[in-house]
Amino acid sequence: MPRKTDARSSAIATAQRLFRIQGYTATGLTQILEESGAPKGSFYFHFPRGKAQLAEEAIDHYIAARLAVLRNISAATSSDALTFVRQIFRAFADEMVASDFQYGCLMQNLANELPALDAELTERVARGFAASTEIIVEHFKGCGFTSARASACAAALVAALEGARTIARLERTPAVFEALAEVSIQGWASSEDRAVAGTLAR
C-alpha cells in the first residue's frame, strides 16, 4: 500500500490508466482505490469532491503529457512539416504498441461520454483538444503554411489521430497510423508546401 504522500499521485495515475482503457462511467471509485492501493480516508482528503475531482486532475496530467510530446516533436522538426507529421503518427503508434493496444485517448474516451460528464470535465476535455491543435497549427505556420491552411491541416491531423487509435485498438496493429501518415503527407504536401516543408522523404 502506498504511503499517504504517494496516495494522491497513485490515485491520479490509476484513474488515468483506467479511464483510457475502459472509460469514465465504467470506472468506479472502488476499482480505483483497489488498484491504486490508496486508503479511502486518504483519497477523500486529497479529492473531497470524489471521482469528478480525480477525473479533473487525471485529465490535466494527461493533457500536460500530450502537449509535452507534441512540443518536443515540434522542436525536433522545426520548419519541416512532413517529418513533423510522420513523427507524431509514429509516437502515437508506439504508445499504442507499448500499451498492448489497450490505451485509448483519455480525452476522446471522455468526449464520447459527454452526457455523463459535468461542465468542468467537459470544458477540460475541450481545452485539451484546443491546446493540442494549437501546437500543431503553430508548427505548420512556422513551416510557411497560411493560417487557414495550418488550421485546416491541424484539425484534420488531430481527427485522424483520434480515429487511428480506435481502429488500432480493434485491429491490434499500428498499420493504420502508418497508412494515415502517408495519406496525410501526400494530400497536404502541395507544390508550395513542399518548398517550405524541408526534406520530403525519410
Overview of the molecule:
The model is unreliable at 195-202 (pLDDT under 50). The protein has helices at residues 4-22, 29-36, 40-46, 51-76, 81-98, 106-111, 119-142, 147-171, 175-188, 191-197. It contains 10 helices and no strands. Helix 4 (51-76) crosses helix 5 (81-98). The protein is mainly α and 202 residues long.
Please describe the structure with a list of short key phrases separated by commas or semicolons.
202 residues, mainly alpha, disordered C terminus
What is the fold's blueprint, element by element?
Layout: H1 4-22, H2 29-36, H3 40-46, H4 51-76, H5 81-98, H6 106-111, H7 119-142, H8 147-171, H9 175-188, H10 191-197
Helix pairs in contact: 1-2, 1-4, 4-5, 4-7, 5-8, 5-9, 7-8, 8-9
